[in-house]
Amino acid sequence: MAHAATTIGDPVSSAPPVAYDKLEEIFADIRGHVLYDHELHGCLNCGICTATCPSAQYYDYSPREIVQLLWTENLEGIYDAMQEKIWACAQCYTCAARCPFENSPGGLVMIMREVAIKHGMQSAKDVLRPFSRVLLKVISTGNQLAPNMITRDAFPDWGPDVSKVDAPLNILRKAIPVPTLHTMDTAWVVNLRTSVELYTIWEETGVLDQLETVDENLFDVVSDVMDEKREEYAEWLEEQEAEDA
Question: Tens digits of per-residue pLDDT, 20-33?
Fold first, then answer.
């Protein structure tokens, strides 16, 4: 307990130091993850994971470094890696396929990312901020893309095929045999009950708590959208009960 008040900081940085007990708390959350023991078994320090890692070729990132930091319980190094390096991983899992110890550096990175979000690290907020629109679209509609998002300017690499964008998409969509695809605002219409059930799952599993940690404004918007969907669903249920009666 003597080291509880100890702080770790960069002497050439203006960033505030990190309390040692905070570093321990972060590592405890990583090590306590249900998948941690499944992803880390040991390390020969052979470097095969880094040699085959696409991200390592272009960024200051090494799967071997991630494994070594966790295997040796280097709390300062783990915290530092969570500020930038873990966000360079492309999650291709080539590392896991090559490791003779059957480690999964990519899986460990996913755990570290989850913990970074849980602790509201600025790195997590910075990385996720550009995806706010996508997150809102996915959570509120169940879709990531929609036909009305496809424009000629947005897809110049389509070449001659870009002419298809100028087609009467609303008419083409209505010609699709599946009724749930007769929409322009979403890729398909998600059942109202499905939306409510998904929202409940996100609540119960802590996904929405994590969203509130990294982007409170987006959380508020999503909550408003889902409250409306729940009211709509409740009204629909009442109408069904009235008709059955």
Answer: 999 999 999 999 99
